[in-house]
Amino acid sequence: MRLSDQTLAALPDAVARPTYNREALTAGIVHIGLGNFHRAHQAWYLHRLMQSGKAQDWAIIGAGVRAADGAQRERLLGQNCLTTLIELDPAGMSAEVTGAMIDFLPVAPDNSPLITKMTDPAIRIVSLTVTEGGYFVDPASGGFDAAHADIVHDAAHPGRPRTAFGAIIAALDLRRAQGTGPFTVMSCDNLQSNGDVLRQTVLSLARMSDPALADWIAAECSFPNSMVDCIVPATGTAERALANGFGIDDAAPVTHENFRQWVIEDDFCAGRPPLEEVGATFCEDVHQFEAMKLRILNGGHQIIAAAGDLLGIETIAQTMDHPLIRRTLRKIVEQEIAPHVADVPGMTPLAYLDLIDRRFANPEIRDTTRRVAYDGSSRQPGFILPSVRDGLASGTPISGLALISAIWARYCLGTREDGTPIAANDPNWQALTDLAKEAASEPGLWIAQRQIYGDLAANPVFDTAFSGWMALLHSNGVEAALARYLDL
């Protein structure tokens, strides 16, 4: 049955669906970046509130800033912006249709529809999932990348911006002029201090064209930090078939694990929905929560994904069946990551490791090693190298983390150990592949990438460890390197 408002009542009894009147919903949020994660996470929390009769004026308007977002818009508008969520619990799958999203804006090169909608006084939150590498941050310095071509364009043409951040600034400029006030700008990406990074990007870009506007945004808008967590695989033929198995023809269903977490700094300049009533945690400081999640879960994904793909292993759950990979994950986290991660209320780092070990091993989650290994040029400096720096500063081991960085370099050669090609899997893939070929015999060239490694190439402990692992990987392969590490 084709998913739509008209067919909701006729869905099978086993499928949960909205009990609220979707026609009565009004928008309070514009969300930029309508991928699977947002629909399984933020939109789900709002849907739950709406099911309880609340947040009826906090519906979501979807938006995108890339030409490719137009295809997602057509898929979702074709089913009234409804989404089928399929929970992949080993104890049994379940499905529900969520309806917190009510529209998807046209995608335009100058972002004019997006700017117009964000100018609406009813919009009180603008949220984003644009990937951790999408904030124009220089990985080496942590500062704003003012030289990027899209940023240069937006600074010169603030009324016709290419980026989401330029569109946000243009809308805030109009709101300031019209006296309609600010909105909260909220990142939902896996990025440490994501609100602070978002604030840096917006204010830095605004100052390039209008310093007075930047000062107004700094004084009036809020940028709450948040930690988001739910494993959400990409959608393909298999996921659409799962929806069909529940009697639903959904062009863009979402599968997800049976776990969610959202920890949010309670800093909203224009109000917020009561998300704590459906399980979100509000606090003054999210940094300890996000450090645990980013270092252990996201870092853990990087420990296993490239190694698994190089060995021809398709899914994350299957990597956890490989004894060397699973043991490597536990050893690196226990000895090289957990010592630098503080406890959070109700959870120690090692207890969290046990939790993610079970989550990664969930056989119902067909999360691919390829998806998780994507964009290592952002994920290595985001999730692996901070633990390297902490280890070097405190004198704790970093050999396993150096091995994971070396495995990523080997991955970027573009071939698996059986000789099959690895399709481009990073925004900078061609440059990385070219460099990986040279680094096979001169490992120092790889860690000399300051935009990724900063000054780590100058550290003899890291340089020696990385170079040694590179030599072993290229002579004996991934499994030999993992076995050597586990014997240390």
Q: Can you offer a commentary on this structure?
A:
The chain is built from 21 helices and 11 strands. The protein is globular and about 65 Å long. The protein has 488 residues and is an alpha/beta fold. The strands form 3 sheets. A 5-stranded parallel sheet has the order 5-2-1-6-7, sandwiched between helices. The chain folds into 2 domains: 279 residues, 3-Layer(aba) Sandwich (Rossmann fold); 201 residues, N-(1-d-carboxylethyl)-l-norvaline Dehydrogenase, domain 2, CATH 1.10.1040.
CATH class of the largest domain: Alpha Beta
If classified by CATH, what would the architecture of the largest domain be?
A: 3-Layer(aba) Sandwich
Please count the helical segments: 21
Average per-residue pLDDT, rounded, comes to 96
Helix content: 40-55%
Query: How much is the radius of gyration in Å?
Result: 23 Å
Q: What spatial form do the alpha-carbon principal axes imply?
A: globular
Low-confidence stretches at least 5 residues in length (pLDDT < 50)?
none
Largest sheet properties: 5 strands, parallel
CATH topology of the largest domain: Rossmann fold
Task: Give, in spatial order, the strands making up the sheet with the most strands.
Answer: 5-2-1-6-7
